[in-house]
Amino acid sequence: MGPVQELVTQYESEYGVTPEVQEITTPDLRSVVSSAFLAQSSPWDAIFTTAVLAQELGARNWVQTVDAFLDQSVRARGELMDRGLGAISAADGYLAVPWTMGAPLMHWNRQLLEDADLDPDAPLNWHAEPNSWDTFVEYAQALTFERDGVQHYGFTDAWADDHILYTWGSLLQMHGGRFLDDEHEPVFNDDAGVEATMKMYELLNTHRVVDPAVNTYTWVFDASPGFLNGTRAFFFTWPFIAGVANDPEGSEIAGNNAFAPQPAVETSASVDGSEFLAVPVFADNEDEAWRFLELVTSPEGQRTIALGGWASIYRDVNLDPEVLEAFPVNEAVVQSYEYPVDGGYSADREIWGPILGNQIQEVFADNKSAQEALDDAVRLIRAEREG
After folding, report:
1. Can you name the residues that pair with 89 across neighbouring β-strands?
2. Is 0.90 topped by the overall pTM?
3. Coil, helix or strand for 21?
4. Element (H, E) at 370
């Protein structure tokens, strides 16, 4: 949120109004915001929100829809990456305004590929090549070996809890599938879901190209050490890891990290991780909230955000030469939003996500078939919803 704080300073300079910013940790955000809104009040005119929280707040009619603002103040001012809006779409409109966009990319260690006589540039185009997933697996197999008593793996990721749904959801969409239908009913227990599950099973149990601790990694910084020390070749994770990997103070692969959208089956795909700002229906100064959002979403505001290390919501800002010089990964971010990035965001995703994640783990442990596990996940989700 650093660049947003910088925009607060700009707002004060331009309008003579000093916004007060209350910082709340993401784990505490839901409880703090919900407590205020339950009392039919809001000490904030605009709030930070994730896609899941926006859906929850929208289901309770606690935030204003933003369709008119998007049409008048966003789409008219830049090349908006529209797929990033799917996460906050609801029946009556969009629930929040994106201030930054990003989805997991494929990162790789060029030096490891060169040492194995593999083309280090080939992965740059896999996103545009149907069935390049198979080529990715072949590379990962060639890059899994032991050297000087140190085990190297072709791939690492974070698959614990429902974090597994980022890569699984990517594969689901690569096969043409969806998490939920238009009524938010689970539909992932189809052929696409089975194929997604089995491709991950094969990485772990058949080809054994994955760091075996992957099922204990709950987030990027659990999985990143092996990638940064040069013993893991490929890593599916957030765009920011490109900067971390190229920083010689904390990375042994500085200068050798490359990145691109994830490989393809029928298509490439990822799972959206954009962040948003919403206007509560209880806001006392909603005019000021909309004016601040005007600044945040202006081309100038988005340049500030992009040059602060967060990908812009606008394609043209991300591809600005000055931005790309500082953050070349933004080109891959833009490319990734040319493909499906659905995350199955609904008001109860934090309930059904762990259910699905747990059932996928049952397949990895050879306790269930993929079809049985996905059918069980649907059954358990429906039971939970019915109370």
Report:
1. 94
2. yes
3. coil
4. helix 370-386
Mean pLDDT for the stretch of residues 119-129:
98
- Domains in the chain: ranges and CATH: 2-102+273-336 (3.40.190.10), 105-260 (3.40.190.10)
Identify the DSSP state of 298.
Answer: S
Sole residue written with tokens 């040319």: 338
Strand partners, 146: 151
User: Across the chain, where does the E strand assignment appear?
Assistant: 47-49, 89-90, 93-94, 97-100, 105-109, 145-147, 150-156, 232-237, 257-260, 275-278
Tokens of 190: 């189809």
Tell me the C-alpha to C-alpha distance, in Å, between residue 81 and each of 51, 274, 315.
16, 11, 6
Structure tokens at 149: 């008593």
How does pLDDT run across 340-361, given as a tens digit for each residue?
A: 999 999 999 999 999 999 999 9
Write the DSSP assignment of 266-297 as a string of letters: SS-------EEEE-BTT-S-HHHHHHHHHHHH
Instruction: Tokens for 202, please give them.
Output: 């094969």
Model confidence at 1, pLDDT cuts 50, 70, 90, reads low
Q: Is 80 exceeded by the pLDDT of residue 93? A: yes
The CA distance from 353 to 10, in Å, is 39
CB under 8 Å to 207, separation ≥6 — which residues?
Answer: 137, 140, 141, 144
In this structure, the number of other CB atoms found within 10 A of the CB of residue 60 comes to: 12
CA distances from 88 to 92, 140, 296 (A): 11, 35, 18
In the numeric block, which tokens belong to residue 92? Answer: 């009556």
In one letter, which amino acid is 233?
A: A
Residue identified by tokens 């090349």 is: 79
φ and ψ at 327, to 5 degrees? -135, 75
* Cα angle value 291/293/297 (rounded, 5°): 125
